[in-house]
Amino acid sequence: MIQNIPLSYYLVISTFMFFIGIYGFLTRRNLITMLMSIELILNSVNINFVAFNRYLYPQQLQGHFFMLIVIAVAAAEAAVAIAIIINIYRNFKSIDVENVDEMKY
Amino acid sequence: MADYTYTLLIPLIPLFVFLLLGLTGHKMKPLVAGLIGSTGLGISAILSYATAFKYFIGSHVAGAGYASIKGFEVSWLHLTDKLTIHLGVLIDPISVMMLVVITTVSLMVHIYSIGYMKGDPGFYRFFSFLSLFSFSMLGLVLATNIFQMYIFWELVGVSSFLLIGYYYEKPSAVAASKKAFIVTRFADLGFLIGILMLSFNTGTFDFQTLTDPHGPAIASAGGAAFMGLSVLTWSLIFIFIGGAGKSAMFPFHIWLPDAMEGPTPVSALIHAATMVVAGVYLVARLFPVYALGAPDALMVVAWVGGFSSIFAAVIACTQTDIKRVLAFSTMSQIGYMMLSLGVSGYGGEEGLGFMASNFHLFTHAMFKALLFLGAGAVIHAVHTNEIGGMGNLRKHLPITHITFLIACVTIAGIPPFSAFFSKDEILVAAFHSNKLLFAIEYIVAGLTAFYMFRLYYGIFWGKNTQYHHTPHESPLVMTIPLMILAFGSVFAGFIPFHALVTSDGLPFESKIDWLIAIPSVLIGVLGIVVATVMYKKENPLPDKVAGTFKHLYKWAYHKFYWDEIYLFVTRKIIYRYISEPIAWFDRHVIDATMNGIAGITQYSAYAIKGLQSGKLQQYGFVFVSGTIILVLIFVYLV
Q1: What CA–CA distances, in Å, run from B117 to B34, B166, B477?
Q2: What pLDDT was estimated at residue B633?
Q3: CB-closest option in B614, B621, B624 to A103
Q4: Which residue has the higher pLDDT, B423 or B537?
Q5: A25 neighbourhood in chain B, CB within 8 Å
Q6: Do B624 and A22 count as a contact with CB atoms less than 8 A apart?
Q7: CA B10, CA B40: separation in Å to the nearest integer?
Q8: Bigger pLDDT: B593 or B534?
Q9: How far is B634 from chain A, CA to nearest CA, in Å?
């Protein structure tokens, strides 16, 4: 039952997910993979929201709602990001982030 | 007390004409522009005559003297309760007299210019500048306080600058206008310092308060002293420096001869009849303060005037440009006026010099404007300024000849022409005050007669010059002003100035002192005779005389090298030892500091611009590590 699982388990899981996401974001060269890494970060945050809400304030629902908002925003963000990636692909014939460094001094 | 509010219109009409011509003149036909200018000035002139009539005759109570009346006044700048600057109209004998002088001469010059400037591409510009000048000069004489006077004083300087530099495509005219502006502006610095000292000392700008014999200005005469002279004396000396600059008194005279680069009507209006007497007017305006509070400052005025008059008269004898001769003659005559003010006392018979000075100012304006306009007519006919290119013109230019002769006889002081009366009063005033100055004025009277007739014979008699095309008399629009001014030159002497314009407003008895007048007339005649012998027919005498006094002649011909002295002082001393070090400091210290700051900024920008690499993941890495470091700091250290 859920009561037997301590809060720290959830937090460990979400921390792992968060840093895996960070790692992926910083090391992967493929823009799509980087986008997936960002989704991973967002989801780790979502787990935190829900877990804290459930364990600390079981009578309230703010954490759940916030989780839903984050999912919605993530969906919108994915749409925008993929649109950008498509445009980058059209311009550079590649989606490798190493090639996209025009915006410098 | 009569109402004089309408006198406000006298300066405002020329201002309006200036704006009208300046803004829309380029669309008008030249003649229309000229007529508008002349009409505006004509209305101002009529108003001035009406004011003079009303003030001197109409509303005058016998035996009461002439009061000083404020026709109009508004508070223009209210800075603090103690420091307020007013603008207004002051009506008293000298301002009314100046109104008549300025509007008369200005109107004559306007009419004359319609003929003289015919065909000039800047016709409307010329007339708008003339109107601007008339406005400023009228505002100057009507000023109720010394600060208003200073404002118009500078406006007069600007319009003089614009008119001297009227032929702006001529480098010499541009140089002359700059010279006039800079020299007078430099002197005006003295004026400003004087104003500030005077008003700081007395707590007022207002002329009526300043010149009140029981007012704060004169009461402060015994105040704090510096180098043996009271603060009041110093401030009046500084104010006189401003007056000396505008009036081309020694040593600020150098701009006046060069100012002749302007069109001749301008020389007649500004550099003979009106603006250059502003200095005399300034001293006359503050005369009670000078006479009662600071006799030492008045001595300075007298000696500067006396020296300038003889200095200029000697130079005038050797110049060959007819306008320059007249310029030096102007300087000499203004010296007379200054001297006359300087030797005068305050009140009643003592104030003879004050009256004589204003009298001479009045007659001088008439005959000197006439001389300049006559010279303009001559230049118009023969297209040269040099006396060597003229001669035997009396048959070609009959009207100019007669009027010019009248002016020459007038300035020589022959009775019954006007300058005889005014000059005689000046000589009497000088005789009773200072015998040395009196002697100088006798010599100057002889020199004046000599150089004026040298000019007259050189232009109208002398050698039979062959002209490219026969010189012809000027059109009526130019000769009528000559005739009117000649009429003024002849009869202005009969105006009873001693009953009208006196230092304390009360009339006094004055009659011609024949013991002084007869020798002065004889000296004048002597000057004329010498000039007749030397210049009437072409002969080798002038060269011989010049050869005898070779050094003096050379010195005088080069104006005693004052231009060169100024150039030496400015170029060799001020430029080299003051301006150049300052320029060096500016370039190597101030600019270098600024350049250094800019350079450091640029250098560091180059040094760190590599951070902006465009690598997305590098940014991300920095962002994440920065966040982690901050979190660690906040968790463990704070």
Answers
A1: 10, 12, 11
A2: 94
A3: B614
A4: B423
A5: 617, 620
A6: yes
A7: 9
A8: B593
A9: 19
For residue B621, list chain A residues with Cβ-Cβ distance below 8 A: 26
Q: Which residue has the higher pLDDT, B20 or B498?
A: B20
Quick check: helix, strand or coil at residue B514? helix
Chain A residues with CB under 8 Å of B616 CB are: 97, 100-101
Rounded CA separation B266/B546 (Å): 32
Nearest residue in B to A38, CA atom: B620
Beta partners for B229?
Answer: B226
**Contacting residues for B16 by C-beta, under 8 A, at least 6 apart:** B40
- DSSP string across B567-602: HIIIIIIIIIIIIHHHHHHIIIIIHHHHHHHHHHHH
Most A CBs within 10 A among B604, B615, B619, B623, hence the mutation to make, goes to B615
- H or E segment at B525? helix B514-535
Confidence (pLDDT) at A2: 65
At B61, the pLDDT band (50, 70, 90 cuts) reads low
B416 upstream amide cis, omega within 30 of 0: yes
Chain A environment of B624 (Cβ under 8 Å):
22, 26
What's the whole-model pTM score?
A: 0.79
Residues B233-257: tens digit of each pLDDT: 888 899 999 999 988 888 888 888 8
Tell me which residue of B246, B564, B295 sits closest to B433, measured CA to CA.
Answer: B295
Single-letter amino acid, residue B573: I
Q: What digits encode the pLDDT tens for the residues B128-155?
A: 999 999 999 999 999 988 889 999 999 9
Domain positions in chain A are 7-92
Confidence bin at B609 (pLDDT 50/70/90): confident
Mutate to test the interface with A, among B617, B618, B619, B624 (most CBs of A within 10 A): B617
Q: Choose from B609, B615, B616 for mutation: most chain A CBs within 10 A.
A: B616
Subunit contact B610:A105, Cβ cutoff 8 A:
yes
Residues, chain A: 105
Per-residue DSSP letters for B92-157? SHHHHHHHHHHHHHHHHHHHHHHHHTTT-TTHHHHHHHHHHHHHHHHHHHH-SBHHHHHHHHHHHH
Q: Do the Cβ atoms of A101 and B621 come within 8 Å?
A: no
Distances (CA, A) of B99 to B41, B137, B194, B353: 12, 9, 26, 21
Q: Evaluate the omega torsion of the peptide bond into residue B251 and state whether it is cis, within 30 degrees of 0.
A: yes
- A101 to B615: CB separation less than 8 angstroms, yes or no: yes
Cβ-nearest to A97 among B612, B617, B621 = B617
Identify the closest residue of chain A to B608 by CA–CA distance. Answer: A105
Q: What is the CATH number of domain A7-92?
A: 1.10.287.3510
Query: Nearest residue on chain B to A98, judged by CA atoms?
Result: B615
**3 state SS of B307:** helix
CA dihedral B177→B181→B184→B189, nearest 10 degrees, is -170
Instruction: Please state the rounded mean pLDDT for residues B588-614.
Output: 91
Rounded to the nearest 10 degrees, the angle between the axes of helix B278-285 and helix B123-142 is 20
Say whether pLDDT at B224 is over 70.
no
- The complex's ipTM? 0.87
Amino acid in position A44: S
Residue B611 to residue B605: CA distance in whole angstroms: 10
Q: What percent of chain B has pLDDT over 70?
A: 97
Q: What is the DSSP letter of B385?
A: -
Nearest CA-CA distance, residue A62 and chain B, Å:
26
Q: pLDDT by residue (tens digit) across A18-64?
A: 999 999 999 999 999 999 999 999 999 999 999 999 888 889 999 99
